[in-house]
Design brief:
2 copies of one chain form a homodimer. Chain A has about 375 residues and is α/β, with parallel strands linked by helices. The first copy, chain A, folds into 2 domains: about 60-275, TIM Barrel (Alpha-Beta Barrel), CATH 3.20.20.105; about 285-375, no CATH class. Chain A is about 45% helix and about 20% strand. Chain A has 15 helices and 17 strands. Chain A has helices at about 50-55, 65-70, 75-80, 80-85, 100-105, 130-140, 160-180, 200-215, 230-245, 260-265, 275-285, 315-320, 320-330, 335-360, 365-375, and strands at about 5-10, 20-25, 25-30, 35, 60-65, 90-95, 105-110, 115-120, 125-130, 145, 190-195, 195, 220, 250-255, 270-275, 285-290, 290-295. In chain A, the strands form 5 sheets. Chain A has a 5-stranded parallel sheet. In chain A, strands 5-6-10-11 form a 4-stranded parallel sheet. In chain A, strand 16 and strand 17 (about 290-295) form a beta hairpin. The longest helix of chain A is centred in the C-terminal third of the chain and has 28 residues, at about 335-360. Chain A is globular. The interface between A and B is large, with 41 and 41 residues. Chains A, B: Pathway: tRNA modification; tRNA-queuosine biosynthesis. Chains A, B: InterPro entries: ArchSynthase1/Queuine_TRR, TGT, TGT-like_sf, tRNA_ribo_trans-like. Chains A, B: Homodimer. Within each dimer, one monomer is responsible for RNA recognition and catalysis, while the other monomer binds to the replacement base PreQ1.
Amino acid sequence: MASLHFDLETTAAGSKARAGVITTDHGKIHTPIFMPVGTVGSVKAVTQQQLKQDVNAQIILGNTYHLYLRPGTEVLEAAGGLHKFNRWDRPILTDSGGYQVFSLAANRKIKEEGVMFQSHIDGSRHLFSPESVMDIQRSIGADIIMAFDECPPYPSDYNYAKKSMELTHRWLDRCFDRLADTPDKYGYTQNLFPIVQGSTYKDLRTASCEYIASKNAAGNAIGGLSVGEPEEMMYDFTALCCDILPKEKPRYLMGVGTPWNILEGIDLGIDMFDCVMPTRNGRNGMLFTTQGVINIRNKKWASDFSPIDPGLPCEPSQYYSKAYLRHLFVADELLGLTLASIQNLSFYLWLVAEARQHIIAGDFKSWKAGFVEVVKQRL
Amino acid sequence: MASLHFDLETTAAGSKARAGVITTDHGKIHTPIFMPVGTVGSVKAVTQQQLKQDVNAQIILGNTYHLYLRPGTEVLEAAGGLHKFNRWDRPILTDSGGYQVFSLAANRKIKEEGVMFQSHIDGSRHLFSPESVMDIQRSIGADIIMAFDECPPYPSDYNYAKKSMELTHRWLDRCFDRLADTPDKYGYTQNLFPIVQGSTYKDLRTASCEYIASKNAAGNAIGGLSVGEPEEMMYDFTALCCDILPKEKPRYLMGVGTPWNILEGIDLGIDMFDCVMPTRNGRNGMLFTTQGVINIRNKKWASDFSPIDPGLPCEPSQYYSKAYLRHLFVADELLGLTLASIQNLSFYLWLVAEARQHIIAGDFKSWKAGFVEVVKQRL
């Protein structure tokens, strides 16, 4: 079928924010977009039906490291790929596993060839190389697949950051080579996004962006941010990258972030986001709403029978009350985890859809300035 | 509004199985019926939307002990009752809390007045009496409310069982008196079901059934079975009770049971069942299906891409595969708990609906004989 295609529709007045449409073999994605994280083939506590009907997810993530360990490529290939296995028939993006190998696995050893690591599940030894990670992502079959990169921690010293970036660039060439040598497995096209690294050094980030841009990929990602650096620094480096990465390709800021991070990222020219925050924080009782941030365990909600989020066009968030959701959390009921996850994901998807409308309407900048204050406030 | 009404439609040929319709102020219930257990106002891991659309639940249970402790009657009254609080607008039945006080609470002390106990949550001291339990059930506002009884353990010696039964009968009188003195709180009628006790002694069970029948209640329950006695003994005492309890009122066998227990109970003249088994066992990976019993964690399902239950008209059970559900359990994903709970509840509701059709069609007895073998087999 066809390679991923990006139609840039509008750039906002007085901002670098863009509205566009990404077309993949599993359907269209309206940008800017937030992608719910479905690490092992399931967005935690939410059914695929709820993801479509209540959350309005257009694309979800899977993770190569987790899916490789469980259920494994043999099962995924027998199923006909992840889309057939988890029955999500819209676009999927898989992370390369690089980030997880560095953060989750034990005794990882980085060499030119790749990374030797031990599984966090059973301690078994594995090698991830650019080639093996491309092969695994072929077996998973996501529409967008990510290059195998090293994500250096924050802070990293200049020499380490430079060597790591250069390794990531060499690995990227090997990813493209491997992909060129291996056909799509399931009759639709997979698209490789390279990842900018370079830690928090302007010359390295600039060099990395130029190298990544030179590959003329279907889309480009910015990695190595939102790893503990101050927010302003994250915004500065996002701006720097967006100025170099090509306008005519979607830009993906990996692992970001809070609702206000996302609004700032959109303002700087980012088209795609992912983060575990809405689901993870939701499971801890932290709700992101159209009115602000709620700790639903707080006693103040015990007799508040207003909807979870009156401003959100999401059925469960309209149907159930804050008091009921608080009760579910206090009583450790599983339903609380589901309703909070749906609320937060639905809010994130609503937020990027609102941003898109304001980009198109021409008032993104003023809307954002006001709404950042709303979503940040603690209720 | 109106008291609960039972229309007995058909009694099966060669069996005591019956098909009927219970009418309450929150709608009709087609019997025989299975009632999912929503202990603290939530059927664990399942949304109210899923309960309606996927499970086809007609009535759910709440538990007085749990709801009294959390969220408490103050919140429930402020909400306008449990129906408004959890947004389940079909019939609800509340257990009296007797069983939980005896099985969960610490340092319980039984006196003529009632039971002093300590909360399993925080050790706080409380008194449950027939009067207080009626008051709490008024605040919860279920359509069917249960008498406060003592449920003796199995085995119990004759003298203990006799004294306990007599206490349960005296408490029953106090329940009816209290109910007569207190109005419905929310504009619809609550109906008290008395509970037969008497342990495993025929004369006691007979005396208890006769006493309970003499109260001319809207429906009658059989308690104190499925507490560890052999299955055959449970069936024998169920048969004994059904022969005495009035035909024109619904009969509720409390806390039962496996799919085959339910088919046998229906055969003996039971109209209503509840049990935590479908949800609890589901959360442990044990599936009840139209083909038999499945341990979904078993390696044999790893690459079985057939639907969870091809024979069940339940969307999630048709949509997702056994291999995917197994993966969710092996990877400890919350979605597994939801899908297994929906499968099991949907199967239980399908099973009683099938039984009803066969009662009406006149071939219940032969269908049951064959199907008991199917549902019992391990796949």
